[in-house]
Amino acid sequence: MGKVTGFLEIDRQEQRYQPASDRVRHFREFVLPLPDGELRRQAARCMDCGIPYCHGPTGCPVHNQIPDWNDLVYQGDWEEAARNLLSTNNFPEFTGRICPAPCEEACTLNLEDIPVTIKTIEQAIADKAWELGLMRPEPAEAKTGRRVAIIGSGPAGLAAAQQLARAGHDVHVYEREPKAGGLLRYGIPDFKMEKHHIDRRVAQMEAEGVVFHYGVDVGVNTPIQALIDGHDAVLIAAGAEHPRDPGIGGMDLEGVHYAMPYLVQSNRRVNGEKVPDRGSPEEIWAGRQHVVVVGGGDTASDCVGTAFRQGALSVTQLDIRPMPPKHEDKNLIWPYWPTKLRTSSSQAEGAEREFQAATLEFVGRNGRLTGVKCARVDERRRPVEGSEFIIRADLALIAIGFAGPRQDTFLGEAAGNLATDRRTNVAANEKDYRTSVGKVFAAGDVRRGQSLVVWAIREGRQAARSIDLALMGRTDLPL
Fold first, then answer.
1. Residue 115 and residue 333: Cα distance in Å, rounded?
2. How far is the C-alpha of 337 from the C-alpha of 291, rounded, in Å?
3. Ordered per-residue pLDDT tens for the chain, 479 residues
4. Interatomic CA distance for residues 85 and 82, integer angstroms
5. Residue ranges of E strands in 53-169
6. Which run of H or E residues covers position 267?
7. DSSP state of 383
8. DSSP string spanning 296-337?
9. Residue 35 has what DSSP assignment?
């Protein structure tokens, strides 16, 4: 490493945010980047560990070569750092913004709670690569004559499409929505990742030969068998969008909604797409409302930040889990992802957080939500008698995760032949990503269940390799 004593001499510095009072007034990204000089100092803190847990398998699912590009950033060689990073991750500008950074939890310096700012440096390398014109299209030198269909344009589908196009295949992506990105575009709010990052990647991929077909809802307006018959291979990368049923009374009250339709509608509005008219029954709007968000994960946090930006009067987040400790026991947990108290930027904007709170019932008057009835729970998550309380609510958003892929699509159509696991995910292993139907592969959330964007990118890349191998008998695509 260029600075072998950097971790001893340089303090950890993180990116800062715009003040909450300013950032809740808009939907743009609000992170204040570190200057190049400070980024080089932060990269110099990398310890040149004998076993760098940060880049896998406990740290980074795509096995980013983190110590290598940290050193290159310290040396000021942004071009080589970008080349190194892009060799393992197709979309570091996505993960550098929205990944929870298990790599930092696995960093050796995290034993002292001062890990290298890996996520910040990754985002900086990607942004610098765009700034310097290094993100050029890489069309294949020769075409294979093989045709591949990809269902879904989320991170798994995009990663697979780019890899297969660069291998010389004729790649066609079939997307239900009017624009590419999947939940990257329609689920993740712009204040976490603005959508021009997706648009320029799509433009790059189109220049590499990828063809995007929008408004194609496979199983609704296009049968999956038509894709199988018209292509040499089909990759299912449709995500896992079926919401988990909370089994709570009062779900039919006006004002009770699942989180994803709320976030999708907000993202469409922010990006100028058609949404329900203001004040119509279909509109989900938090402005001048008392909002309760049921769930403690990232989607719930996204609802919190979105509600504040829409002008919510109050936002309360309910988490059935007990409040976790502020610090984990490193000797027991490191280098794995720990359960500890984390406060997202959205929660820091003024949310009330209730832990060990079970949602018993949505209560209302004249068919309209007025409150959420809750109770404290014991260590087995059973309601404690006599602990009931009601939180005022005009809007309740349910964000407790997904039960698997939607079954009202081609998955239901192909159910007789397409094997699924006990959670209704498409059955395929991580060795070759093949399904029970010939020529058909599966990757991402539709295969593994709800997960991180970085895992979807990994699976898309690996599935592309398997498809290339199946079509050509050999492959140069990386594992």
1. 15
2. 30
3. 668 999 999 999 999 999 999 999 999 999 999 999 999 999 999 998 889 999 877 899 999 999 999 999 999 999 999 999 999 999 999 999 999 999 999 999 999 999 999 999 999 999 999 999 999 999 999 999 999 999 999 999 999 999 999 999 999 999 999 999 999 999 999 999 999 999 999 999 999 999 999 999 998 899 999 999 999 999 999 999 999 999 999 999 999 999 999 999 999 999 999 999 888 889 999 999 999 999 999 999 999 999 999 999 999 999 999 999 999 999 999 999 999 999 999 999 999 999 999 999 999 999 999 999 999 999 999 999 999 999 999 999 999 999 888 877 777 665 457 899 988 899 999 999 999 999 999 999 999 999 999 999 999 999 999 999 999 999 999 98
4. 5
5. 147-151
6. helix 259-270
7. B
8. -SHHHHHHHHHHHHTT-SEEEEEESSPPPPSS--HHHHTTSP
9. P
* pTM (global) more than 0.85: yes
Structure tokens at 461: 């890349």
- At 206, the amino acid letter reads E
Structure tokens at 444: 């991402």
Joined together, the tokens standing for residue 470 give: 């199946």
The neighbouring-strand residues paired with 235 are 150, 441
Give the type of residue at 343: T
